[in-house]
Design a protein that fits this description.
Strand content: 25-35%
Radius of gyration: 21 Å
Distance between the termini: 40 Å
Shape: elongated
Number of helices: 6
Strand order of the largest sheet: 5-4-1-6-11-8-12
Largest sheet: 7 strands, mixed
Length: about 350
């Protein structure tokens, strides 16, 4: 089976995290989200993955050229952004059988094997994974009939006018014949244009309501939230179970005897922590992190290659790769990068 990842977006709302990094490559627990999602497909019979890219496409190809994800990778780069539907159509030559499609900014615990079984049982032309949210007006709302098939799609209805609290989760199964209804060489929204057109033409769109967790990492707030959810056990990642073990990776770190580690904490490689430093709870320390004395780091995500001087305080913040924070800096509710510092509300 084959799968397609829509990985061409600029991630504008996630800036400055995406100023120099494609949104799908933003690290979740120290590993690029796209890498995590591609590797997860091995367990449901996927052996070939197409990555539809646009923004900073070379960064994605370079990363995966040094990785063995257990599946064959192909790349289709858009000259200009074509939207979700246009990107799918642009990859049509690679798909001649049932295939999976994923928005690449999604973190979810959907049983893909069960999703595939559901699609086949329904004899659907398209299956859309749906998830229930508290505020559906921010998303594409799906209404269904008594048999689990979509009847209407409403993109971002006004608050109070939602007729369902189930939204499009950005995970689909397509039959290849569906691609014939998507226009070529222009911007197409699969959510606003393709799905309503399929319904009008009599195609069967099944709606799968499985899955225990879903979030898109489209903003710094949501990026922080997914890490809190992993630390709390609400969201599961294969290699870390923080309900069983509160600290991962510390055995490879150089930690001063007077430092204090308060789990849950995740350590990358070659971490060095100075005297009288407190780390945790809810902290990710990327590869090569190094601190001076007397620092406090809580509820924060530090990417690879970050170093901090003495007396630095980092609370509820994201520090991007390669940053050096001078001694005495106080960083609270902030995205801190080499080029910009932008506060945001958690």
């Amino acid at each position: 089976m084959k799968a397609l990842f829509l990985a061409g977006g600029k991630g504008t709302r996630l800036r400055p995290l995406t100023d120099h990094l494609p949104k799908p490559m933003v690290p979740v627990m120290g590993r690029p989200l796209l890498e995590r999602n591609v590797e997860a497909l091995k367990n449901c019979g996927v052996d070939e993955v197409v990555l539809s890219t646009c923004y900073r496409a070379d960064d994605i190809e370079k990363h995966f050229s040094n990785r063995n994800c257990g599946v064959k990778l192909r790349y289709v780069c858009e000259d200009i952004p074509l939207g979700t539907g246009g990107a799918i159509k642009n990859c049509r030559d690679y798909f001649d059988d049932t295939f999976l499609i994923f928005n690449s900014d999604i973190v979810c615990n959907i049983d893909l094997n069960d999703l595939i079984r559901f699609h086949r049982k329904k004899h659907a032309d398209v299956t859309i994974a749906a998830t229930r949210v508290e505020n559906p007006s921010n998303y594409g709302v799906i209404e269904t009939d008594d048999f689990g098939f979509a009847t209407t799609f409403t993109e971002k209805p006004k608050p109070g006018e939602e007729k369902s609290d189930f939204i499009n989760a950005g995970v689909y199964i397509f039959e290849p014949k569906v691609l014939d209804l998507i226009a070529s060489n222009r911007v197409v929204s699969v959510e606003k244009e393709t799905f309503p057109a399929l319904l009008k033409s009599g195609y069967r769109i099944a709606v799968y309501r499985g899955g225990s967790y879903w979030i898109d990492i489209g903003t710094p707030e949501k990026y922080m939230q997914v890490h809190r959810d992993i630390f709390s056990g609400l969201c599961c990642v294969p290699e870390n179970d923080f309900l069983q073990n509160h600290i991962y990776g510390a055995e490879g770190a150089q930690i001063h005897g007077t430092a204090r580690i308060v789990g849950p904490v995740w350590f990358g490689r070659n971490v060095r922590i100075g005297a009288n430093v407190t780390v945790g709870p809810n902290v990710v320390l990327g590869d090569g992190f190094e601190s001076g004395r007397g620092c406090v780091i809580r509820n924060s995500i530090l990417w690879n290659g970050v170093s901090v001087g003495s007396g630095v305080s980092i609370i509820k913040s994201v520090i991007t790769s390669g940053c050096h924070m001078p001694s005495g800096i106080q960083c609270v509710n902030t995205v801190y990068s080499q080029e910009s510092k932008r506060p945001f509300v958690i």
